[in-house]
Amino acid sequence: MNKDFKTLEEQIIILEYKGLKIEDKEFVKKVLLRENYFFLNGYRHLFLKSNNDRHFIEGTTFEEIYSLFLFDRQFRNILFKNLLIIENNMKSIISYQLSHKYGYKESDYLKTKNFTSQSNKQRQINDLIKKMKRQVRINAPQHAATMHYVNNYGYIPLWVLVKVLSFGIVSELFSILKRDDQIDIANMYELKVDALINYLPILANYRNLCAHEDIVFENKTQRELEDTLYHKMLNINKVDDEYVYGKRDLFALVIIIKQMLKPNEFKNMVEEIDRALMNLEYNLNTITIVKVLDRMGFPENWKELANITKRVEE
Question: How does 41-77 read in b/e, with b if 16+ C-beta sit within 10 Å?
């Protein structure tokens, strides 16, 4: 069945029919036009009476839903800038490790012998090398640094190439490195190799979600985060012997970020998120901030994570 186009007036009628309180229709029209009805509608779920009753909780205002929308935008931007820090750090560390060990020209660092010898990963290695060479062909003409090296030296060093590689490719690159190289890189974060292999695709996925302005606050991770010392130290509740927070939710991402940023960077991030949550709480009337935290996967004592100095249990 096709979805018919709805005018701004018709969109407002639908919202009012479902019980949403709208006082300033001109304001609502401007917001719907500027922000997109479909996207904004994605924030309504917390304000509905139930999964079966799709009407709004009595007294819910348009401004409340818009406040959640604005919170998610702010939250997304906070995550994004910190994920970019992690991405840049990871690219720098990998490029240094490989350049120092194997050379700084594509003909040196892109040799298959520089990667794991596991037979089940040889096809992945060849495919990834092709992807990286394709990135050189496509992106080199578009960036001043890559053009400089191509025009003046005839090659692109890895520390320049990583700037045009996606975080996803860098994540995959780490997964096919020789074990010794993986250990050296993971040690810089005081992490086990398997943990970092698990973390990087999650980080890359959220980096892309943030970049494309998807709804983030209630998004679930593609992979389950293994239990960490942080889950235990925060006394997160368990159901059927599994932690209810920090497994496939936004708090799982925050736990990963905790281990990848410097302590002061992470504390700054926590403070920014806390301010955004307090601002949202001020604008909520029909639901509590606890309901929002629960949807995010944040325990009520989530801020204590910033004060924990121990690393993941090894």
Answer: eebbebbbeeeeeeebbeebbbbbbbbbbbbbbbbbe
